Amino acid sequence: MELSIIVPTLNEAETLAGTLEAAPPGAELIVSDGGSADETVSIAERHGARVVTGERGRAPQMNRGAEAAAGDVLLFVHADCLLGPDARDNIVLALEDKKTVGGAFSLRIRDAGWSLKLIAATSNFRARHLGTPYGDQGLFVRKSAFDQVGGYPELPFMEDVALVRELGKIGKLVQLKAPITTGRRHWQKLGPLATTLLNWSMVLLYTIGVPAGTLAPYYRKLRNESARSSSESAWTAP
Questions:
Q1: Which of 48, 92, 174, 198 can bridge 103 by disulfide, Cβ–Cβ 3.0-4.6 Å?
Q2: What are phi and psi of 32, to 5 degrees?
């Protein structure tokens, strides 16, 4: 198995080095940048990553990274997430089942209090029992399956939800026991409870047919985000 790790970035100089350093040895590293004005690109290059650049937006950035990837398995990782040392071995083991097209890791949140630990547990329960992992859990997918569904739908919002939905139509998605650790920044502005309730409401509305393009401006307004980085400006799992 050849593994390509794709990291979408926009002004991620504070976190990117740690993410790349935690990548499994031998994996292809691709940083898909959306126009960073800080040291993101130079940090990526110093860590041996291939950098591709273009239009800002998580879905198009991840699709560009996938196009550049040489691996037969793609792993999409947010720029503030850390993989564990056994990440690659766990992916290999999961994909021994030919019915499995992809999956995700078990979510952990750094320096989490009880509320964030509960949120992580809820996300892991959903991924394990409903087969619906989201992007901050580190989505991995066979390249052939990714191409078959047309990659990430280039939506302004919910792109990982839409991808997982399409992948579930052609195969099985699994959750690994191996962890991926993310930062707390997504929950800091509104707080854990308000952020989670907002996320759940967005998922519900999207599920019943409200277009992602309609939901996105309301989500960003309610979060009052400046869209400083790709990790903060787009969807993160409830």
A1: 174
A2: -105, 105
CA distance 197 to 18: 30
- Inform me whether the pLDDT recorded for 138 exceeds 50: yes
What crossing angle do the helices spanning 159-167 and 58-68 adopt, rounded to 10°? Answer: 50
33 SS3 class? strand
Instruction: Report domain extents, the chain.
Output: 3-185
Q: Please give the sequence-ordered ranges of beta strands (E in DSSP) within the chain, or none if there are none.
A: 3-9, 28-33, 50-53, 73-76, 82-83, 100-109, 139-142, 172-182
Structure tokens at 59: 């879905």
Tokens describing residue 7: 């990291």
Among the residue ranges 88-97, 141-150, 151-160, the one predicted with the least confidence is: 151-160
pLDDT reported for residue 185: 73
Give the span between the Cα atoms of 215 and 131, in whole angstroms. Answer: 23
In tens, the pLDDT along 95-114 reads 999 999 999 999 888 877 77
User: Who wins on pLDDT, 98 or 122?
Assistant: 98
Going across the sheet that includes 172-182, the strands are 50-53, 28-33, 3-9, 73-76, 139-142, 100-109, 172-182, 82-83
Quick check: 237 pLDDT over 70? no
The helix-helix angle for 192-207 and 212-223 (nearest 10°) equals 170
How many whole angstroms separate alpha carbon 144 and alpha carbon 44? 27
